[in-house]
Amino acid sequence: MQPDHHDFNSAVAAAQRASEVWDALCDLSQSVVGHRLFTVMTVDMQAGLARRAYSDHPVQYPVSGTKLIHRDQWFDIVHGEKRSFVANTIEDIAKVFPDHDLIASLGCGSVINLPVVLKGELVATINMLDAADHYTADRVAMAEAKLAVPAKLCCALALLFDLTDKSGAR
């Protein structure tokens, strides 16, 4: 096992809250493909809502509230085809993300949105952003190969933690 996966395994095994699971995935993704901004958006397709469940930049991208899911090119790729969305210029990001100015202000010009699918349904996206042209074909392949299963584990654990917290069970 590579050191980054060992650290991830230890962090997940010790986690007591969803935020700790997301911290572990954030660290793992940094070691696998790198990022300047890392967020997790959960989705509720029945309600048509997305919610930011985690952010490593909580001032610029706070964990709060929900937003409506918009059906566009990004939706077709990530929700419909359950494939990663990749854009490597701020111009391409601007086509699908209205907050492109904020993204650019953080020094980001590329993005990969890795879909997380459980029970055949999209439940979240793992969003990594970095400098323009950062997410090369090799990095995208690496993200899909090395982060897909850990992302599924983290989503399942976060859901379990959320349900446990709401029920008061320990």
Report Rg. 15 Å
CATH superfamily: GAF domain
**Assembly status:** single chain
Strand order of the largest sheet: 3-2-1-6-5-4
So how many helices? Answer: 6
Can you write the helix and strand succession as a string? HHEEEHEHHEEH
Note the main sheet: 6 strands, antiparallel
Short account of what is shown:
With 170 residues, this protein is α+β, with helices and mostly antiparallel strands. The chain contains six helices and six strands; from the N terminus they run ααβββαβααββα.
Word description of this protein:
The structure is a single chain. With 170 residues, the protein is an alpha+beta fold. It has one domain (3-167): 2-Layer Sandwich (Beta-Lactamase), CATH 3.30.450.40. 45% of the residues lie in helices and 23% in strands. The chain has a six-stranded antiparallel beta sheet. A hairpin with a 4-residue loop joins strand 1 and strand 2 (49-55). Helix 1 (3-14) packs antiparallel against helix 2 and helix 2 (18-32) runs antiparallel to helix 6. The mean pLDDT is 91.
